[in-house]
């Protein structure tokens, strides 16, 4: 919300009327009101059409049904144990996959970015690997590593790796030659150059990729559970699907959305902290 | 501080002389030819001397400098620093570019402390030294600012502090004040002279501003239009300390020297101009 203000101010700057602070708070009120109306129209419309049987609730679910389903899960647990256990398992898989993927992506990206010979040798293979629909790898991982968390962590980290790797690689290549030359003349070792010049410079790129990467980590975990698991939200979804329970699918989706949004918030906070040196980071983020 | 620096014999500190003899640098062009940037450059900078190189644009001034600093390898000839031949990065050399090479993600203090940290000094000592140098260039109180929060002149001061904190025996400057406005440039030149007189490294200073070159230097080297080579060397006998660079310009001796060197430089500038004129004519 706060970021949207400068733009709002510019839009209404030459309209005569009440003083700016009041006008601004009134506009914010209007925006929030409109958002609420939009939500009510969509969810209410969904509820209305399904209860009037214009749309069949058996296939399309129903908002009240979703809430009931969520309450039921929270109170009585799912078929595979408590709801919190399912969330915990999926989160653990996603976070571990995210961690391994980010780490290996950064290491490989920096390594290949710094050593052109290596980049030339490995480059084509990475492109080929990237062209493979990696979701399919999930089946192989389940075969190799079984139905436990390991196969999901592998799938998630493979998905994350490529996103982070390409960004880190590009970031390393974009490092200002002047900075490198200066660091060398100042007597920096190769390791010091990576630590003081290359990594901080590539960080802007790497962090930008983290937003997308976390989404991929969640996808990896869920799809992995879809392909075969004993616990997790993905399993909950696929079971709901097999039982013709659209409310269950939507309810699990809602939970995943909340998780992804909170992760987004954490990454944003992390980004602002790490890139505090950047001029006007908030101005860049105005808009959406 | 010199004690803490690695791999450097103590004798290399203080000022070191620089000798270039017959230095040639060729680049491979994208079309597969060879481009000679500088040809057979021979020049000497005495220990502790302030030597300026002037010449028209594209005469290989910067190439000469980077051959001395080490990032560029020469194609032929020899560079000797403090009497011993060099190949690669020379310890005890500091570099100052036209575009300041300050790291935007480090504070002013951390930027200045970078040189000593790279040379193995503890972070604490390096920061203490950096604080001292920032005070000497008049930036006390700006330690925690980021480079983008400073003006162009202030950033130059930070670069100057970062270059001098290593107590270089050779200071290489590639049009360091080229991007500054005239007033800031004059102020920075004065400060450079003041600091140089305290520390006295040998300086190789590249500029296309002849007045700046004469006002600052003991020796002015005029280079020919590319492939660049040394055309003439002038020793400047203006007394030191020179005082304000803005005022020395009106000294009769300054004018005399200026006229003499300009006579030599003008030919090269005109040739360089004629060359670009025919090239753009041919292109059109």
The total domain count of chain B is: 2
| CATH class division of the largest domain in chain A | Mainly Alpha
Assigned CATH architecture of the largest domain in chain A: Orthogonal Bundle
Q: How many strands appear in the DSSP assignment of chain A?
A: 0
Query: Helical residue percent of chain A?
Result: over 70%
Keyphrases for this structure?
heterodimer, A: 288 residues, mainly alpha, MetI-like fold, 2 domains, 13 helices, 80% helix, disordered N terminus, B: 284 residues, alpha/beta, Rossmann fold, six-stranded mixed sheet, four-stranded antiparallel sheet, 8 helices, 21% strand
Secondary structure layout plus pairing:
The complex is a heterodimer of chains A (288) and B (284).
Chain A: H1 5-12, H2 20-51, H3 57-60, H4 63-76, H5 83-114, H6 116-131, H7 137-145, H8 149-173, H9 177-185, H10 190-227, H11 233-242, H12 246-274, H13 281-284
Helix pairs in contact in A: 4-12, 5-6, 5-8, 5-10, 7-8, 8-10, 9-10, 10-11, 10-12, 11-12
Chain B: E1 18-28, E2 34-45, E3 50-54, H1 61-69, E4 76-81, E5 84-85, E6 93-96, H2 108-118, H3 123-136, H4 152-164, E7 170-174, H5 182-199, E8 202-206, H6 210-216, E9 219-223, E10 230-235, H7 245-248, H8 252-283
Parallel strand pairs in B: 3-8, 3-9, 6-7, 7-8
Antiparallel strand pairs in B: 1-2, 1-4, 4-5, 9-10
Helix pairs in contact in B: 2-3, 2-4, 3-4, 4-5, 6-8
């Amino acid at each position: 919300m706060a970021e949207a203000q400068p733009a709002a101010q510019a839009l209404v700057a030459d309209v005569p009327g009440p003083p700016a602070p009041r006008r601004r708070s009134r506009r914010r009120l209007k925006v929030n009101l409109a958002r609420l109306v939009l939500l009510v129209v969509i969810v209410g419309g969904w509820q209305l059409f399904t209860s009037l049987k214009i749309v069949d609730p058996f296939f399309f679910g129903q908002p009240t049904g979703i809430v009931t389903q969520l309450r039921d899960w929270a109170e009585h647990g799912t078929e595979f144990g408590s709801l919190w256990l399912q969330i915990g398992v999926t989160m653990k898989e996603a976070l571990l996959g995210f961690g391994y993927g980010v780490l290996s992506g950064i290491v490989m990206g920096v390594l290949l970015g710094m050593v052109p010979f290596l980049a030339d040798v490995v480059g084509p293979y990475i492109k080929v690997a990237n062209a493979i629909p990696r979701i399919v790898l999930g089946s192989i991982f389940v075969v190799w590593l079984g139905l436990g968390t390991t196969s999901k962590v592998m799938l998630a980290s493979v998905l994350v790796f490529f996103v982070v790797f390409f960004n880190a690689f590009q970031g390393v290549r974009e490092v200002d030659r002047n900075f490198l030359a200066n660091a060398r003349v100042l007597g920096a070792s190769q390791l010091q150059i990576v630590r003081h010049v290359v990594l901080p410079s590539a960080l802007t790129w790497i962090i930008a990729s983290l937003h997308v990467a976390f989404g991929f980590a969640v996808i990896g975990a869920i799809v992995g559970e879809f392909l075969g698991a004993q616990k997790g939200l993905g399993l909950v979804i696929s079971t709901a699907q097999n039982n013709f329970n659209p409310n269950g699918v939507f309810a699990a989706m809602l939970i995943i959305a909340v998780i992804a949004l909170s992760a987004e918030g954490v990454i944003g906070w992390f980004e602002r902290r790490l890139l505090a040196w950047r001029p006007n980071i908030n101005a860049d983020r105005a808009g959406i | 501080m010199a004690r803490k620096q690695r791999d450097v014999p103590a004798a290399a500190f203080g000022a070191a002389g620089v000798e270039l003899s017959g230095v040639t640098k060729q680049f491979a062009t994208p079309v597969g030819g060879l481009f000679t940037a500088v040809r057979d450059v021979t020049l000497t900078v005495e220990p502790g001397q302030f030597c300026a190189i002037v010449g028209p644009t594209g005469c290989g001034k910067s190439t000469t400098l980077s051959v001395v600093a080490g990032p560029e390898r020469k194609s032929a000839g020899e560079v000797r620093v403090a009497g011993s031949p060099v190949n690669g990065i020379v310890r005890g050399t500091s570099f100052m570019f036209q575009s300041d090479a300050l790291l935007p993600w480090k504070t002013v203090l951390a930027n200045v402390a970078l040189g000593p940290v790279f040379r193995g000094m503890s972070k604490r000592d390096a920061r203490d030294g950096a604080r001292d140098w920032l005070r000497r260039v008049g930036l006390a109180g700006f330690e925690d600012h980021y480079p983008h929060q400073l003006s162009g002149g202030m950033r130059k001061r930070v670069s100057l502090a970062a270059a001098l904190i290593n107590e270089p025996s050779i200071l290489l400057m590639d049009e360091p004040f080229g991007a500054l406005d005239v007033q800031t440039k004059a102020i920075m030149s004065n400060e450079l002279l003041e600091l140089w007189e305290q520390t006295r490294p040998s300086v190789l200073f590249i500029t296309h501003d002849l007045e700046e070159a004469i006002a600052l230097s003991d020796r002015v080297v005029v280079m020919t239009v590319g492939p660049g080579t040394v055309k003439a060397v002038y020793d400047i006998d203006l007394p030191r300390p020179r005082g304000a660079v803005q005022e020395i310009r009106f000294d009769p001796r300054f004018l005399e020297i200026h006229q003499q060197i300009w006579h030599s430089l003008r030919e090269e500038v005109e040739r360089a101009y004629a060359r670009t004129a025919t090239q753009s004519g041919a292109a059109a």
